[in-house]
Design brief:
The protein is of the alpha/beta class and about 375 residues long. It has helices at about 15-25, 45-55, 75-85, 105-110, 115-120, 130-135, 150-160, 195-200, 215-230, 230-235, 240-255, 260-275, 280-295, 305-315, 325-350, 360-370, and strands at about 35, 55-60, 90-95, 100, 115, 125-130, 140-145, 165-170, 170-175, 180-185, 205. It is about 50% helix and about 15% strand. The longest helix is centred in the C-terminal third of the chain and has 22 residues, at about 325-350. The chain is globular, with a radius of gyration of 22 Å.
Length: about 375
């Protein structure tokens, strides 16, 4: 019996959290999202609802890594050997899953383990696959990520960044695809993540209990209806789920076509410098996030509002001191720096709406150098 999932479009409030999750689907290179907040604020509900919202995916039947039969370059070693030898990749469809990492998990359970003698003879076939194998092309959800050991978090972030998981034991190395949407959640009262780890997570959202009476009343009504008759409730939001799914899928197809005006690129850099963001991940993540926001709106050019919304998602954990600076104070700092950067742009009297095709410019520059 499958678990009934609350529809994503039926979730009341928590708009920043929902947006951050969807943007990582549109543009996975954003690098995941960290959701900070108290228990009972809809974090896990939203993650499971997101997986249910997305369309089924095609996989190679029997492959432990959920290989995509339409993406030959990302096939695991076994599927690639089968394909190269003229074999048929049998295909089946499967819903996107939420793969969870439990507290107290061992590194072997996460990355997988190797039988050394078999590995010498059989390669990847000797791998006892772990959670990162199951997570490939799915959502990897880490509740209470701040309570995981640092080396396991590093393993997750390395795989998320590289798109592969490498298991090394006694000089033997085996690699398999591991591309996933990383979602971590935590209660800051139970401890913070190290700044070095925080910086490697793409976006951060701080969620709080809904304080508005009307919204809380609506939450209660919807939960009651869902409990009484899940089928009727799901049918009520069927069209809104389809509409949102279509928006996300369209955004995925155009996100790499989205262009950013040169002046807005300058705003992003000035913003991060003004806020003393220590690494380049700040401006890179704002750029990727802004392009995803534009794509989700059906546009191929980033505007000011896209940059502003992206900055508030990408810099919340990169400004101030975690556990010391209050989220509302960090938000004020970011907004103030945004206002300053945009005021400087306006004072120059330049048009920031004309898009610059950065990829084309880069390609032309490379041609001139060769």
């Amino acid at each position: 019996m499958s678990r009934r999932i609350f529809p994503f479009s039926a979730i009341v409030a928590q708009d920043q959290m929902k947006l951050a999750l969807i943007l990582n689907v549109v543009n996975p290179v954003i690098g995941g999202v960290l959701i900070r907040g108290e228990r009972g604020t809809g974090k896990s509900t939203a993650v499971r609802a997101l997986a249910k919202l997305l369309p089924n995916m095609k996989i190679v039947k029997g492959c432990p890594f959920n290989c995509d039969p339409d993406s030959i370059e990302t096939l695991c070693t076994v599927c690639k050997e089968n394909y190269d030898n003229g074999g048929t990749l049998e295909v089946e469809e499967r819903e996107m899953r939420v793969v969870e990492i439990p507290l107290g998990v061992t590194e072997d359970r996460v990355v997988g383990s190797l039988d050394i003698e078999c590995a010498i003879r059989d390669g990847i076939r000797a791998l006892e696959s772990g959670i990162l194998a199951a997570a490939n092309r799915n959502i990897l959800y880490v509740d209470e990520i701040n309570l995981l050991s640092d080396h396991i978090i590093d393993d997750l972030l390395d795989s998320a960044a590289m798109g592969v998981n490498t298991i090394e034991r006694e000089g033997i190395s085996v690699t398999h695809p591991s591309r996933f949407i990383l979602v971590g959640s935590m209660n800051p009262e139970e401890g913070e993540l190290r700044p070095q780890i925080l910086d490697r997570l793409g976006l951060t959202v701080d969620v709080v209990t809904v304080k508005d009476f009307n919204q809380r009343f609506e939450i209660l009504k919807r939960v009651e209806l869902f409990d009484i008759d899940p089928d009727m409730f799901e049918n009520k939001f069927k069209e809104s789920e389809k509409t949102l799914q279509a928006r996300v899928m369209k955004a995925q197809t155009i996100v790499n076509q989205v262009k950013v005006p040169k002046k807005l690129l300058e705003v992003i850099v000035k913003l991060c410098m003004d806020l003393q963001v220590e690494t380049h991940r700040g401006e890179i993540t704002i750029l990727r996030c802004a392009k995803a926001i534009a794509a989700l709106a059906g546009r191929t050019t980033v505007n000011r509002e896209d940059v502003e919304r992206a900055a508030l998602l990408a810099l919340m954990h990169r400004v101030g001191k975690p556990g010391i600076t209050k989220p509302e104070d960090v938000m004020k700092q970011i907004q103030s720096a945004l206002d300053k950067a945009f005021n400087e742009l306006d004072s120059e009297g330049t048009d920031d709406t004309q898009a610059q095709d950065q990829m084309t410019s880069d390609d032309e520059a490379k041609k001139k150098m060769t």
